[in-house]
Write a structure and sequence with these properties.
Belongs to the SIMIBI class G3E GTPase family. ZNG1 subfamily. Zinc chaperone that directly transfers zinc cofactor to target proteins, thereby activating them. Zinc is transferred from the CXCC motif in the GTPase domain to the zinc binding site in target proteins in a process requiring GTP hydrolysis. This is GTP-binding protein. Keywords: Chaperone, Hydrolase, Nucleotide-binding. The protein is an alpha/beta fold and 332 residues long. The protein has two domains: 210 residues, P-loop containing nucleotide triphosphate hydrolases (Rossmann fold), CATH 3.40.50.300; 93 residues, 2-Layer Sandwich (Hypothetical Protein Yjia, Chain: A,domain 2). The strands form two sheets. Strands 3-2-4-1-5-6-7 form a seven-stranded parallel sheet, sandwiched between helices. Strand 6, helix 8 and strand 7 form a beta-alpha-beta unit. The radius of gyration is 20 Å and the shape is globular. The structure holds guanosine-5'-triphosphate. The site of guanosine-5'-triphosphate has 22 residues, from helix 1, strand 9 and strand 10.
């Protein structure tokens, strides 16, 4: 196949990486940023929880990361996105930051991508410097079917995608991937679909579109780029856990919690101090699944030394806090 003709439009593309809570956006982004031809990329990360984790993980791969954490991009902090993009452009022209050839915006797992792209394309101060790039949506190979069928946000992210990346194929059977692929195609019949696993992920060329005649899919399907719609009652809260935890007791606690309440706890993530390890341990739970721990080399500045962010329905911080004592290491 002939390679696609490069775009004649020299403005910087703003790609949006979206996907439901815990579907693998940050993992995939870290993989993409490891490619040499994505070296000149400015990354903007939007997090729903009160304390950000994703930007710390991405900063392991690139320094050029801005965190927008005061709300969800599609409804609360759209103006912040516009001003951040304008500042980045000015700073790159003044030589205050390394020049970049594209921007990737990683949204929260609950974001509607339409108002985000619309904000970028309709801001007069951005029009001369930026153009709309691709919308890439990660769909969780394990929980994606449940998310698309039960959460408007997940279906909307698929509907607007130029490319869907079905993640975590290493954790499910082929027939489950096929069933999920059919659901994706029902929501967005023309979308390009890629499959990804922890060990083999698609490349930037597979998911980002650079062809001269390419038009973003969202232009075809979105006539109302207003505020994002969010499922009723999803809330986020943070629990500080600054006392050292006993790892086996913590894993048992989290597995039991997600087994019992995985329908209402959509996402848990955080950094924990664990007995016997100097490094902060990165925690990931998505619906019913607890993922293997990762590590950061050191504690980040400016956040508590131990916290868990919950994104959930019908769950209170006090219910979690009451159940916590079992996870702590005994004092010696
Ligand atoms: N086995 C496996 N695990 C994966 C894969 N992709 C992501 N994960 C794990 O899934 C968990 C959540 O991944 P993230 O990349 O943080 O997901 P996210 O979409 O950025 O999460 P939010 O920003 O909180 O919505 C982590 O523990 C990842 O290591 C995959 O392809 N295979």
């Amino acid at each position: 196949m002939q390679p696609a003709a490069p775009s004649l439009d020299t403005r910087i593309p703003v790609h949006v990486l979206t996907g439901f809570l815990g579907s693998g956006k940050t993992t995939f982004l870290r993989h993409l940023l490891g490619e040499p031809n994505l070296a000149e990329t400015a990354v903007i990360i939007n997090e729903f929880g009160e304390i950000g984790l994703d930007h710390l993980l991405v900063r392991e791969v690139t320094e050029d990361v801005v965190l927008l954490s005061s709300g969800c991009l599609c409804c609360a902090v759209r103006d912040d996105l516009v001003s951040t993009l304008a500042e980045l452009l000015a700073m790159s022209r003044d030589g205050a930051v390394t020049p970049f050839r594209q921007v990737v915006v990683e949204t929260t797992g609950l974001a509607d991508p339409a108002p985000i792209i619309h904000a970028v394309m309709s801001a007069p101060e951005l029009l001369h410097g930026y153009r709309a790039g691709s919308i890439v949506t990660t769909v969780d190979g394990v929980s994606g079917l449940n998310s698309i069928r039960n959460f408007t946000e997940a279906a909307q992210q698929v509907a607007l995608a130029d490319c869907v990346v079905i993640t975590k194929s290493d954790l499910v059977e082929r027939w489950q991937l096929d069933a999920l692929g059919l659901d994706v195609a029902k929501v967005n019949p023309s979308v390009r679909t890629q499959t990804s696993s922890k060990h083999a992920m698609p490349s930037a060329a597979d998911v980002l579109n650079h062809a001269a005649d390419w038009k973003p899919n969202y232009l075809a399907v979105s006539d109302k780029p207003g505020r994002g719609v969010h499922s009723h009652g999803i809330k986020t809260f943070t629990v500080e856990v600054t006392r050292e935890v006993e790892w086996p007791a913590f894993v048992e606690w989290l597995e039991l919690l997600l087994a019992a309440r995985g329908q209402s706890i959509l996402r848990v993530k955080g950094l924990l101090p664990v007995r016997g390890d100097e490094r902060p341990v990165v925690i990931h739970g998505v619906q019913h699944v607890v993922y293997p721990p990762e590590y950061l080399p050191r504690w980040p500045e400016g956040s508590p030394r131990g916290w868990l962010v919950f994104i959930a329905r019908n769950l209170t911080r006090s219910a979690i806090e009451k159940s916590l004592p079992s996870i702590f290491a005994a004092k010696h």
